[in-house]
C-alpha cells in the first residue's frame, strides 16, 4: 500500500484535539501517515471549532492560504472537519468553493471511503448527526507523553441558550464502559501515567447501570495510571456518589472545573443553566468539605444579553466569595442558531470589555493569593519535561493541576517528585525537589 500523507490543523477545545487523534487513527489503516508540513500532504484538513468569535474568518483566511497546495500537485485534497463544517457548511461551500470535503463530527468514519472515491468537481459533504456514534472501536493515534486524552462521551443535551454545541455535536451518548477501560489499560501498558476523560458534559457519562462515578472507580484499579482527571463536568450532573468517589480515590485529582457562567439568578435562568447561585454555592461547600484542598476553576461570560450592572456585580462578588484557583473569562458573543442569538446584544462591546477586564484583574489577584498559600508546602509533582522558561529546570503538575517548576534533579517525565514550594505567581508554583 502506498503511503499517503495527511496534515491536520486543529482549532478549538481539547475534544477537537482528541478528534484529530481519532481522525489520524481512522486513516492509518488505510495507508495514511500524519505530517507536520502542509507542503508534503496529500490530504489537508482543518479540524474546526464554532464556539469562539471570529472562528469563521480565521478558517476562511487559512483555507485561502492552503488552497495553493492543490495547484502544487494534482490529487491534493483540502477539507474542513469539525463543528464549523457542521454549522456553516453552506457558507463554506459558498466562500471556499475549491473545498473537496466537508465533514461533521459524527461523519468521520466515512472519511477513508470519501478519500478513496474518484475525484469529482463537487465537494463531498457528510454532516449527518448520529445519535449512536461514539467511535468506540477506533484507536486514536495519540501524541507521545505521559498524558492521554480519552473521549468518554460525545454531544450535549443541555441546550444552554448561548451555546452551539448541542446543534453541532448532537445528543449525549457514551462510549461503553468495557471497551473504554480496555483502551485505558492499553494506554497504561504504553506508559501513559495520566488519563484525562473528555466530554462536553463529561459527568453525564452513562453506560446502562454504570455512571461516571463507576467509571472513575474502575479506572482507579488500573495499574500504571497514577492520575485521573476529567473535563468539563456540568454542575447539575454532580452526584453525591461522584463527590464521595473523588474523595476516596487518591488517583483522582483534587481538581474540578465547574463552569458557573454567571452568579446572577436572573442571568442563569436566561442562560437555562439548570441551577441557581445558591445551589451552585451549596455544591462548592459540599465539594470542599468532602475533598479538603480541592482546586476549583470556572468559566464566566461577561455581558450576556440582559446582564445589567447589578448582575455583573453579583458575579464579581461571587468570585471574591468562592476564590477559584483560576477562571476562563470571555466576552459574550452571539452564536447564530442559538436561542440567545435572537435576543441580540444588550451590552455594548465597550461595556463588555470593561466588565471582562475587571473580573480578569480580580481573578488574577485571587489566583495569586490562593497560590501563595502553597509556600512552604511539599507537593507531589508528575514530571512532564523541561520547563519552558528556565534552562535545566523541570516542569509538571501537582494534584490540583497547578504548574510546578523546579531545578532539574534528573527526574524523568512520568515520575512523581516531591517539591517544596518556595515562591509562587498567579499561574505557577516554584520550588525545589526534596
Ligand atoms: S452544558 Fe451548556 S455550555 Fe456546556 S456544551 Fe452543553 S449546551 Fe454548551
Provide a short characterization of the protein structure.
This protein has 434 residues and is an alpha/beta fold. The protein contains 14 helices and 21 strands. The protein has three domains: 4-126, 3-Layer(aba) Sandwich (Rossmann fold); 147-372, tm_1862 like domain (pyruvate-formate lyase- activating enzyme, Alpha-Beta Horseshoe); 378-433, OB fold (Dihydrolipoamide Acetyltransferase, E2P).
Overall tally of structural domains: 3
CATH topology of the largest domain: pyruvate-formate lyase- activating enzyme
CATH superfamily of the largest domain: tm_1862 like domain
Strand order of the largest sheet: 2-1-3-4-5-6
What is the CATH domain class of the largest domain? Alpha Beta
Q: Which radius of gyration do the C-alpha atoms yield?
A: 23 Å
CATH architecture title of the largest domain: Alpha-Beta Horseshoe
Number of strands: 21
Helical segment count: 14
For the biggest sheet, the summary is: 6 strands, parallel
Terminal Cα span: 53 Å
The structural class is alpha/beta
Instruction: Give the uncertain stretches in residue-range form.
Output: none
Descriptive overview:
With 434 residues, the protein is α/β, with parallel strands linked by helices. It has three domains: 4-126, Methylthiotransferase, N-terminal domain (Rossmann fold), CATH 3.40.50.12160; 147-372, Alpha-Beta Horseshoe (pyruvate-formate lyase- activating enzyme), CATH 3.80.30.20; 378-433, OB fold (Dihydrolipoamide Acetyltransferase, E2P) (Beta Barrel), CATH 2.40.50. The chain has helices at 14-27, 55-66, 68-72, 83-87, 89-95, 111-116, 165-169, 177-189, 212-220, 240-248, 265-271, 277-290, 309-322, 349-372, and strands at residues 4-10, 32-34, 43-48, 77-82, 101-103, 124-126, 147-151, 153-154, 173-174, 194-198, 206-207, 210-211, 227-231, 255-257, 295-302, 326-331, 378-386, 393-397, 403-407, 416-424, 428-433. A hairpin with a 5-residue loop joins strand 18 (393-397) and strand 19. It starts with a strand and ends with a strand. The relative contact order is 0.08. Iron/sulfur cluster binds at residues 156, 158-160, 163, 165-166, 200-201, 234.
